[in-house]
């Protein structure tokens, strides 16, 4: 029973182990590259700034509450000097008097410990319409940034698929070299027999050995190219190198028909369109600089003065012999309530608002100019990629025909070599012709796939399932 349980556990974990060691698909490679790409991550983080600005604009109408307080020693001094005073007579009671200037000349000191606390709340009621347009501008900016992220995704897909196709091209090259190695091994055995019969010279046999050595060097070169591609895919995707090394893709042509000749779906143009709309809203927002802003505000305050002392530096009254020295009771003021609505109206701001409007208009003109230039470049790119795709398809047919002719030529030379009517040089030349023809065919298929992908991108129609 214990043995059975152990065997059951082994069967349970084996599928997960087998999956972990399996070669990644193209879709898995692309998904991993999208997660690990630094440029796309940077664009995503920058877009969060835009979203944060948008949230800030939404929260601008929320009330703001502040609580403040302070305590400290209060001291103030005032110099009192009386002017000349003439008191008119009030007969028969008061004969009148004249008090000369400076008769009362004293310093009044007030000191104590003061404390104050204040709670204040305010809320923006009307921003002059500026916030509404800024929110729209921010929304368009966010859409533009997301569209540019789609462009980065397409570039990542293109880079990964290119490395994937290069793996397939290298693999197909390996297959061609292996087939050539098998044929050379057979022909070397034939050459050994022919040498024994005196049909060929030792020099002819050495040529076949040299051809085998050249083939072995190409196989070593293949291993180096494969290792480089494994490293490239690892850096793009961060998938284990062991799994990437197991990839054995096949090179197949991509059939793609351009049904839409329009470039208006390109994310570059759409991003610029939304950028232009954002500047339109920004212009409207800056044009509202002169509109009054309205805010409601209320506050509750508390004030207390204790350990008070009010004194004078000299006699309070001439010839009285007494200075003022009072210690009044603590002074409390609670609550001190204020509530109301205020507004701010910039009648003239030194042309700052005007300059901001002009700046926003220049930004719009820059984006419009970029849009016109991008449209021209993308139309040219579409025409060029369409031509390259057509040429790539026709080249495949030509290379297939060349391979067929080279294959038939090698078969004929091999027959004649066995009968001693052809030298080893002719055999090696025929072998090289077939090898080159097969490699050129695989390269033509690789180029056809690249041209098809670029054509898909030309009309913003990159389809992973076709890759």
TrEMBL record:
Q: What is its main location?
A: membrane
Q: Which residues form a coiled coil?
A: 357-447
Signal peptide interval: 1-20
Q: Where does the source fall among the domains of life?
A: Bacteria
GO cellular component terms, A-Z: cell outer membrane; efflux pump complex
Q: Which Pfam families does this UniProt record tie to the protein?
A: OEP
Asked if the Swiss-Prot or TrEMBL record annotates the protein with the keyword Transport, the reply is yes
Family of the protein in this entry: Belongs to the outer membrane factor (OMF) (TC 1.B.17) family.
Q: What is this protein called?
A: Type I secretion outer membrane protein, TolC family
């Amino acid at each position: 029973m214990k043995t059975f349980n152990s065997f059951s556990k082994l069967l349970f974990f084996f599928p997960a182990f087998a999956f972990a060691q399996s070669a990644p698909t193209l879709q898995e490679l692309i998904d991993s590259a999208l997660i690990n790409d630094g440029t796309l991550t940077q664009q995503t983080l920058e877009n969060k700034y835009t979203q944060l600005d948008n949230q800030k604009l939404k929260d601008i109408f929320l009330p703001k509450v502040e609580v403040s307080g302070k305590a400290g020693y209060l001291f103030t001094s005032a110099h009192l000097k009386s002017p000349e005073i003439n008191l008119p007579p009030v007969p028969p009671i008061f004969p009148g008097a004249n008090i000369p200037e400076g008769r009362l000349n004293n310093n009044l000191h007030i000191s104590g410990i003061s404390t104050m606390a204040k709670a204040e709340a305010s809320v923006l009621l009307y921003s002059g319409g500026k916030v509404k347009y800024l929110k729209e501008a921010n929304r368009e900016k966010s859409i533009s940034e997301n569209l540019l992220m789609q462009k980065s995704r397409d570039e990542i897909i293109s880079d990964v698929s290119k490395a994937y196709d290069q793996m397939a091209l290298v693999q197909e090259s390996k297959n061609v070299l292996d087939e050539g190695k098998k044929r050379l091994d057979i022909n070397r055995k034939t050459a050994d027999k022919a040498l024994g019969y005196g049909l060929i010279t030792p020099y002819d046999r050495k040529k076949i050995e040299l051809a085998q050595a050249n083939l072995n060097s190409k196989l070593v070169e293949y291993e180096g190219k494969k290792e480089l591609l494994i490293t490239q895919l690892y850096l793009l995707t961060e998938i284990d190198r062991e799994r990437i090394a197991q990839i054995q893709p096949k090179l197949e042509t991509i059939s793609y028909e351009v049904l839409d000749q329009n470039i208006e779906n390109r994310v570059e143009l759409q991003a610029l369109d939304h950028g232009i709309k954002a500047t339109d809203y920004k212009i409207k927002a800056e044009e509202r600089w002169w509109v009054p802003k309205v805010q409601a505000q209320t506050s509750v305050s508390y004030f207390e003065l204790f350990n008070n002392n009010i004194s004078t530096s000299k006699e309070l009254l001439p010839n009285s012999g007494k200075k003022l020295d009072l210690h009044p009771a603590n002074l409390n003021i609670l609550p001190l309530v204020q509530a109301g609505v205020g507004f701010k109206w910039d009648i003239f701001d030194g042309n700052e608002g005007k300059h901001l409007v002009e700046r926003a208009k220049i930004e719009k003109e820059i984006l419009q100019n970029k849009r016109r230039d991008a449209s021209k470049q993308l139309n040219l790119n579409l025409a060029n990629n369409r031509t390259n795709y057509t040429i790539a398809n026709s080249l495949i047919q030509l290379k297939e025909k060349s391979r067929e002719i080279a294959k038939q030529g090698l078969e004929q030379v091999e027959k004649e070599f066995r009968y001693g009517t052809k030298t080893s040089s002719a055999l090696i030349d025929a072998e090289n012709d077939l090898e080159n023809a097969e490699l050129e065919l695989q390269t033509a298929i690789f180029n056809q796939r690249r041209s098809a992908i670029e054509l898909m991108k030309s009309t913003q129609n990159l389809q992973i399932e076709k890759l």
